[in-house]
Input
Amino acid sequence: MKILIVEDDRALNNGIALSLKGEEILQAFSLAQARSLLDGSIDLVILDINLPDGSGLDYCREIREKSGVAVIFLTANDMEIDIVTGLEMGADDYITKPFSLMVLRARVNAVFRRRQEQEYGQSKRAEKNEGQGRFFFDFERMLFKVDGRPVELSKTEQKLLRLLVANQGRTLSREMLMERIWPDGAEFVEENALSVTMNRLRAKLPGIPVKTVYGIGYEYV
Output
């Protein structure tokens, strides 16, 4: 798991990073640093609300406009209205200070379990579409059908389709998709590679319910 910690208290930031050893950790001490580090390869953002250059709440709203990455607020703001606001903004969890690092680790693991179960459930629901809709996707057996007719997809097309199906109803940014599909060299991939892959996917799966969200990315509706 790749985790971005956004916390201006350096001692606390380092303590959190130490408690999550075994994971790939990036540390930011301001929103400016967080913005420079956040990309499609990040799995979780641990986010303080009171930061020296702005509000973590505003940053969470900014994240949600372009990404479905998991977010956990970690803050001294412990009023009920603060917690409700944070969760309504799309945070996966809200932890108030002071807190136990052991509990934080457990909450992080719980968020990832829920995310994995959600993605697995969405994938399984998609696999059961045969006989109920035009499309059938079995990502484990790499079996794809349209109207009962088998379709052969490239590995890249399968990656793109799986990301879209697993995040049904969410707009995925082009940056996030590029990072996930080409994790070892997205910066070296031609800018139109994602558009070309999407066009090929639509040609092979005519009528697939993928919406282009102009200026942002794509959404499986």
